[in-house]
Automatic annotation (TrEMBL):
Residues 126-224 bind DNA. GO terms for biological process: regulation of DNA-templated transcription. This is DNA-binding response OmpR family regulator. Residues 3-116 form the Response regulatory domain. The keyword Membrane does not apply. Pfam families: Response_reg, Trans_reg_C. Residues 126-224 form the OmpR/PhoB-type domain. Keywords: DNA-binding, Phosphoprotein, Transcription, Transcription regulation, Two-component regulatory system. Gene3D superfamilies: 3.40.50.2300, 6.10.250.690, Winged helix-like DNA-binding domain superfamily/Winged helix DNA-binding domain. GO terms for molecular function: phosphorelay response regulator activity; transcription cis-regulatory region binding. One of its GO terms (cellular component) is cytosol. It comes from the Bacteria. It comes from Micromonospora polyrhachis.
Amino acid sequence: MADVLVIEDDDRIRLSLVLALQDEGYHTRGASTAEEGIAEQRRNPADTVLVDLMLPGVDGYECIRELRRTDGVPIVVVSARDDTHDIVAALEAGADDYLVKPVAVKELSARLRALRRRMRAVAAPVLGLRFGELEVLPEAGEVRLRDEPVPVTRTEFRLLCELAQHAGRVLSRQQLLERVWDYVVGDERLVDVHIGRLRQKIEDDTSAPRHLVTVRGLGYRLQR
């Protein structure tokens, strides 16, 4: 049975999430502050952590960063904030996914199952793929630019591998959600945010990308 820790300061929302996820078959517990949640995770690690951003004292962003310093646990933000800036900031802090309140429990449960499948998935061996000065090494779990390692998150790496293995082909946002996030339904902004972050890391000029290009109305393509 999967173990979920809910870090949420609103007692009503926290209890609602804990009880609803228990009904879905999860072993679930709650914490009302970042400090309490971090201590609980270190004392009794959960399989997945849900984090609200608007926590008293230490906010959700710092909570995520603190968890990430010592823990590779999947982290999902559940927040009333729906601005793309907030999504970017949470993902930059180390979150794996982002859901906007109010959250349908069935969707949350499906996201948690998909996230766990992604973390357990083992990719088939694939040789290194080169795109000029950019090299994607699926077997080694590395991205290199001009022979220097590029720091990428797990999701960024999966996204880049998917595009690299279909080099020259346009993949839609929905296709990428299904293949990278394992979501049948999801917020396409997750794709856009990760594409933007990858461009900052692999492109010399993000306004005129050479490798990771947008095909208007269709999706994204990684080109040689």
